[in-house]
Amino acid sequence: MSGTDYNFAYLDEQTKRMIRRAILKGVAVPGYQVPFASREMPMPYGWGTGGVQVTAACLVPEDRLKVIDQGADDTTNAVSIRKFFQKTAGVAVTERTAEATVIQTRHRIPELPLTEDQILVYQVPIPEPLRFLEPSEVETRKMHALEDYGLMHVKLYEDIARHGEIATAYAYPVKVEGRYVMDPSPIPKFDNPKLESAALQLFGAGREQRIYAVPPYTRVVSLDFEDHPFDPSKAAHPCALCGAEDSYLDEVIVDDAGGRMFVCSDTDYCAGRREAAA
Amino acid sequence: MTPLLEVRGLTKAYGGRIGCAEVSFTLWPGEVLGIVGESGSGKSTLLNCLAGHLAPDAGQVIFDTRGEGPRDVLAMTEPERRMLGRTDWAFVHQNPRDGLRMRISAGGNVGERLMAVGARHYGEIRAQAADWLARVEIAEGRIDDRPSAFSGGMQQRLQIARNLVTGPRLVFMDEPTGGLDVSVQARLLDLIRGLVRRMGLSAIVVTHDLAVVRLLADRLMVMKDGRVIETGLTDQVLDDPQAPYTQLLVSSVLQA
Ligand SMILES: Nc1ncnc2c1ncn2[C@@H]1O[C@H](COP(=O)(O)OP(=O)(O)OP(=O)(O)O)[C@@H](O)[C@H]1O
Ligand SMILES: [Mg+2]
């Protein structure tokens, strides 16, 4: 297969225009889930087909793309999406957060603060934050429309009643610009403060056919109680490789004797710090 | 005095079949109105039209709102009606499963309405939930249990607590004691009567059980084929029924 077999970034222009219209609507109504006609992509659902379609609709030939999965550029999922766009769009790629113009991510926000020149595209499995509380789609839409969000706090109440604290650690619900409650995709709650960003953030759910957006400098508040305020919670240790004390850490098993260490989940951030120190 | 609720010419048909037709009545603050009638007489249809769960074909439902005085509920926007539904109104379903969240703890069930109107202090929400569980005679130790672990009578009492926690002024009840066995019914009725009197609630109680209205209702409305055929003070209607149908209804119960 060669790149010339495809339209630029795989999708045909008509489809990209349809997706861009959904993105624009999402930007105009921050946090609102815009339905779109998701296309079959040459990869299975759960591999980021929603994010891939959003990225395809955003890319221009001059872009430099970075793809991460749980913070790392070198996992199978990240590598195959990066290759996909190298082949179908011929765009430059990078692992450096600072050098990327478009970053597609699964489950993390890069540690390095993003800029106005960057777009962060999230892969979203389940876009509806109320889904596990209210299975009816008709009802959840009504709840969004009427700003009827008491149920969201019921979930947090249940957390505290059962665990003594808000136990939700991923996909922690947020309120966007004082209006829509949004699922930020399964990023760790540690990343929630970074949702208030200079970059444009776009969220794509392929199977569920939804796109939503957080425009630059939008207010994003994590839901909580007055007496149980939101706590992004940070591991007690520094990164074992670069010594960072402000980054999200993954636990890595280092031998078969139960030895383990904590290292930055954002591999580019970690490498950059080690380079600078060397 | 301004009536709490004034209903005029309320009509609802299901296709060609009459649900309820040209129902008019007035409910005064602190009053409990019973609605009785045989199965299919339109009691639930009427109640659901009043509470905004069903859209009637014609009529007016004028409620004396706290902020703006008497307003036609049917002319309100959906958000306004929903707000009423979680502040000033309460609806107790016959089947507690329809009125409870079965996968949420008892405390969460009671707290939901508080959170829906903006309560954001966990400790206060929980304290109010505990207080309300006590008021409906559910042991405080059950606050984190799910309603699915409760008996039918407890579920119904939980549903009542969940509804009354925001201090509503008008409570709709559709067969609140239906489906429960007799001793449980009696205890629940006692509880409802106590709460209604103490909180000075106004209520509309639908039932086909005349013992329920005898105990709870100040006034009675008898329905047949979707229409109101007799109204009056409860004792009057039960002891000296005027309409032949009501006479039949009362005598059949007395014999049973
Ligand atoms: N969803 C519906 N579709 C069509 N007809 C309906 C519907 N609901 C009720 N009806 C009809 O409307 C009439 C009134 O029914 P409704 O349920 O209001 O009676 P009810 O007095 O509450 O009876 P019950 O004591 O059995 O609960 C009946 O003829 C019933 O068959
Ligand atoms: Mg009924």
Write up this protein.
The complex is a heterodimer of chains A (278) and B (256). Chain A is of the alpha/beta class. Chain A folds into two domains: 3-222, Rossmann fold; 234-278, no CATH class. Chain A contains six helices and twelve strands. Chain A has helices at residues 13-28, 49-58, 76-89, 137-145, 150-163, 267-277; strands at 34-35, 64-69, 92-93, 102-106, 119-123, 174-176, 180-182, 200-205, 210-214, 220-222, 249-253, 260-264. The N and C termini of chain A lie far apart (42 Å). Chain B folds into two domains: 1-88 and 168-256, P-loop containing nucleotide triphosphate hydrolases (Rossmann fold, 3-Layer(aba) Sandwich), CATH 3.40.50; 96-167, no CATH class. The chains are: A alpha/beta (278), B alpha/beta (256). Bound molecules: adenosine-5'-triphosphate (ATP) and magnesium ion. The site of magnesium ion has 2 residues of chain B, from helix 1. Adenosine-5'-triphosphate is lined by residues 14, 17, 19, 37, 39-45, 208 of chain B.
Which SSEs are present, and which pair or pack?
The complex is a heterodimer of chains A (278) and B (256).
Chain A: H1 13-28, E1 34-35, H2 49-58, E2 64-69, H3 76-89, E3 92-93, E4 102-106, E5 119-123, H4 137-145, H5 150-163, E6 174-176, E7 180-182, E8 200-205, E9 210-214, E10 220-222, E11 249-253, E12 260-264, H6 267-277
Parallel strand pairs in A: 2-3, 2-4, 4-5, 5-8
Antiparallel strand pairs in A: 1-9, 6-7, 6-10, 8-9, 11-12
Helix pairs in contact in A: 1-2
Chain B: E1 5-14, E2 17-27, E3 32-36, H1 43-50, E4 58-65, E5 69-72, H2 78-86, E6 89-92, H3 96-99, H4 106-116, H5 122-135, H6 152-164, E7 170-174, H7 182-199, E8 202-206, H8 210-216, E9 219-224, E10 227-233, H9 234-239, H10 244-255
Parallel strand pairs in B: 3-8, 3-9, 6-7, 7-8
Antiparallel strand pairs in B: 1-2, 1-4, 4-5, 9-10
Helix pairs in contact in B: 4-5, 4-6, 5-6, 6-7
Residues 14, 17, 19, 37, 39-45, 208 of chain B line the site of adenosine-5'-triphosphate.
